[in-house]
Write a structure and sequence with these properties.
442 residues; alpha+beta; four-stranded antiparallel β-sheet; two-stranded antiparallel sheet; 6 strands; 7% strand; disordered C terminus
Length: 442
């Protein structure tokens, strides 16, 4: 596709609502610049719906190698008409386009390497295989396959069969990506219905139905079945993500399976939660979408989520330091609640002190911010201990009881004699849990 006649410019969303040029690699000099938004070529609109983009048969008059076509572009808010030379990109330009696409979002390579390592460590695990297929396809399409559709003129005016192949490739989400994640959720760390009844049949159907929907869309040019299957996949993934862990924690007493489920929740949650927030916002509220995406795509946050996902799944699959999930969950709960409490307290204290200064002096003062900051610093330690005590007592009762027994034990060094009202209760709990260290009497 890249060797077809085109203007030679890579754009961000080919054929979508924004055809903003990122770079140009044509042989001849072009009046187009990075940042220009392509609106039309030879009187043919380049801004269309996605289903109209692939396989569009209409060509501008005299379109071909060596021609010059008038392009309508938006540059700095101004509409311009520019004569643009049309030629195939040479092989050096093709290599540059591939390099440009492959290095976009280079931080994702950390995730690819992580899942490759997981597969090499546990090639027999169905979870490792599903992840390898899922993110292997993600790499092949987004870093290599998308290069073909990134040059607008070549992709927009490509022959029908080539456009069909490109559309099917770019719709990999429906026929390999989401099916692999769904298979992972119902098969790891234990199989659940319907995978327990007919695992092979379920696996075939998970992949075959989306492929059939994609082929139907290509043949009929009607995306309704494609959209129905895509929506159904997303619903099933959300239901499985919620229902399978609840059932596991409710019915399964195997500590290893429960710990693996916890790591799975942490990994897929860190990967899917940003997607679940950003994807609906992109349709509902463009302003909120920009704010949330700018937050999630900051280098620190982006790298954190990119590393956390394969790391957590690697622990779940290889069982390395498997039971540290309790520590992770405990600290996550403690510091998440602590952050919310401190942020709320800081905000309220600044507002209250500023209002007080306005009443007393008639103007705002930086002393309100200084005093609030000092107050938060002083509050951090006591509030953290209080929150941790509440979390331990509510969610980690065994650990809390063991600590209480240890503190109240008459044999514990440097402790006062048992005189607190909770001591008898503590010893009764300890005698019921002989497995806890240091809780035996006598």
């Amino acid at each position: 596709m890249l060797r077809l006649p085109s203007e030679g410019c890579v754009v961000d969303h080919p054929g979508g609502l924004s055809n903003t040029i990122l770079a140009c690699y044509g042989e001849r000099s072009t009046p187009l610049r990075p940042g220009d938004e392509l609106i039309a070529a030879g009187g043919v609109s380049l801004v269309v719906e996605e289903e109209e983009f692939w396989g569009r048969a209409q060509l501008p008059e005299s379109w071909g190698a060596g021609a010059t076509i008038d392009y309508t572009v938006r540059r700095d808010g101004e509409m311009l008409t520019l004569p643009v030379p049309i030629d195939p990109i040479n092989w050096n330009g093709v290599a540059q386009v591939f390099a440009f696409t492959a290095t976009t979002d280079a931080k994702e390579y950390m995730m690819y390497v992580g899942f490759l390592v997981i597969f090499l460590l546990a090639p027999q695990s169905i979870a490792a295989r599903a992840l390898f297929v899922c993110f292997g396809a993600h790499f092949a399409v987004t870093k290599l396959g998308w290069a073909g559709g990134s040059v607008l003129g070549a992709a927009f005016f490509a022959p029908g069969w080539l456009s069909t192949a490109s559309f099917f490739l770019t719709s990999f989400w429906i026929w390999i990506y989401w099916p692999s994640l769904l298979l992972l959720l119902i098969s790891f760390p234990r199989r659940v219905w319907p995978a327990t009844r007919a695992p092979r049949t379920v696996t075939v159907l998970i992949y075959a139905i989306p492929v059939a929907a994609g082929l139907f869309t290509l043949i009929t040019r009607n995306p309704i079945l494609y959209l129905i299957v895509l929506f159904t996949q997303l619903v099933l993934i959300v239901v499985a993500f919620i229902a399978v862990p609840i059932q596991t924690f409710w019915r399964v007493r195997d500590r290893a399976v429960r710990a693996q489920t916890g790591w799975l929740l942490l990994s897929l949650g860190s990967y899917l939660v940003p997607v679940a927030i950003l994807y609906p916002l992109s349709f509902l509220n463009a302003g909120a979408f920009e704010q949330f995406s700018s937050f999630f795509l900051t280098p620190v946050i982006y790298v954190f989520f990119t590393v956390l996902t394969p790391l957590s799944l690697g622990i779940a699959i290889t069982r390395y330091r498997l039971f540290d999930i309790a520590v992770v969950i405990r600290r996550t709960l403690v510091y998440s609640i602590l952050t919310l409490l401190l942020a709320g307290t800081y905000f309220l204290s600044v507002v209250a002190l500023q209002a007080l200064f306005v009443q007393l002096t008639g103007q705002e003062s930086t002393l309100a911010v200084v005093a609030s900051t000092l107050g938060i610093a002083a509050l951090f330690g006591p509030l953290r201990r209080r929150v941790q005590r509440v979390i331990d007592r509510r969610f980690f009762r065994r650990k809390y009881d063991a600590q209480q027994c240890s503190h109240n034990s008459p044999n514990a060094p440097n402790t006062r004699p048992i005189s607190t009202p909770s001591a008898p209760t503590c010893w009764r709990r300890c005698r019921r849990r002989w497995s806890l260290m240091g809780c035996r009497s006598g």
